[in-house]
Amino acid sequence: MNRHILLIEDEVNIAKFVELELKHENFQVSVVHDGREGYETALSNHYDLLLIDVMLPSLNGLEICRRIRKQQNTPIILITARDAIIDRVSGLEAGADDYVVKPFAIEELLARIRAVFRRVDGTIDVSATLKINEFVIDKNAHQVFYGTKKIELTKTEFDMLVYLMENQNIVLTRDAILENVWGFEAEIETNVVDVYIRHLRKKLPEEIARIIETVRGVGYVMRE
User: Fold this and answer.
1) What superfamily would CATH give domain 4-121?
2) 52, 8 in Cβ contact below 8 A?
3) Is 6 within 8 Å of 27 (Cβ atoms)?
4) 71, CA 20 to 30 Å: which among 94, 95, 128, 152?
5) CATH number of the domain at 129-222, please?
6) From start to end of the chain, where are the E strands?
């Protein structure tokens, strides 16, 4: 069954071009040109990936991303016309899995889409349950619990947490985290890792957040 992608893009010519290219790569594609309509469409149907432009009428892409993240973990790639670090970090903080900057080569967009799907497909491990006292990660169910409380994480946050827990007491460089969590040599700055670590710590119980230590100038380590 083909992957189904929802493209929310108000520039009709760009939307048509991307739609044709994605269909040529055997993706099923739905297109919406308005932000609010796109948000409602994303919630009312099942999609394997949401491709969302940041600058949209009615509801901008960052707000769509934030609202969707409160309800589901469907992978999201943002399309932004602005290349400033703050704009890209804002997208990741809103819960996006990746971003691509206009103007972009279609090959770059396709590479990022495939990389997201590789990450989605690569998380299942038939044996895996990771535990620290009452803190449990069920990799089969893609769920995290602290006692009986379920902790909601995005796909990327989950993958990062698993990578840290599977490598306890090993200092992981930012480059290593990018390569293993993103699943390819991402053309994004290593400070993106810092953004995700910060958000991860906020969502985790204090007992776990405090053992994710920053190794200044190198990266991060989860201590026993």
Assistant:
1) Response regulator (3.40.50.2300)
2) yes
3) no
4) 128
5) 1.10.10.10
6) 4-8, 28-32, 49-53, 76-80, 98-101, 129-132, 135-138, 143-146, 149-151, 172-173, 212-215, 219-222
How many CB atoms sit inside 10 A of residue 102's CB? 14
Residue written as tokens 């083909």?
2
Here the tokens at position 154 are 């995005």
- Name residues whose C-beta falls within 8 Å of residue 167's C-beta, 6 or more positions apart in sequence: 222
Kindly tell me if the per-residue pLDDT of 123 is higher than 60.
no
Omega of the bond leading into 75 within 30 degrees of 0 (cis): no
Cα gap 111→124, rounded to integer Å: 22
At residue 4, the pLDDT reads: 96
**Contact call for residues 30 and 4 (beta carbons, < 8 A):** yes
